[in-house]
Amino acid sequence: MGTKATQIVGLDVKEVVNDLRRAYADEWLAAQGYLYMAQIVSGRPAAERVAAALKEIAAEEMEHQDELAERITVLGGKPPKSFEEITKAANAPFPQTPADPTDMDAMIQATIEAERGAIEVYQKLATKCHGKDLLTYELAVHILGEEVEHEDKFESMAS
Fold first, then answer.
1. Cβ contact 89:80 at 8 Å
2. What domain range is 38 assigned to?
């Protein structure tokens, strides 16, 4: 990031990078967790619908991860590079998958909980950056909007 751009950011850039790295790790874990659940879900005819939704949301989480990586790099940081770094950096653990692959309600609930955690992360990041780091603020608001949509999508599937 250039000198003037660094000067106008009204926050500690290292702190913002750390917040973005944690969000990046969350997105990575969510995407992997959702893909895993999509691969194992079985049972009722609704399983195909749940698997398709999980795959779609996982792809969006990977897009978020890419957007976060770009911002981290622009701010002079690097995203976590190993699974160990990712799990240490994350705000939340790997989404808990039920032992029973036919328990779609538990999968949906795990996804809802993960999305609620993401909503909190991006709301805090947007609040922190508002009026201080406009580019990170815009990114946080953009991702926040999609996380809200994800929560709504899975709440509508819950029984």
1. yes
2. 3-157
Q: Which amino acid is at 47?
A: A
Q: Dihedral through CA 60, CA 20, CA 37, CA 88, nearest 10? A: 160
Q: For residue 78, what are its two tokens?
A: 């690097």
Domain count, the chain: 1
Q: Looking at residue 27, which CATH number applies to its domain?
A: 1.20.1260.10
The C-alpha atoms of residue 58 and residue 15 are separated, in whole angstroms, by 27
Cα–Cα distance for residue pair 49/44, rounded to 1 Å = 10
Tokens of 83: 């699974």
41-83 confidence digits (pLDDT tens): 887 778 888 999 999 999 999 999 999 999 999 999 999 999 9
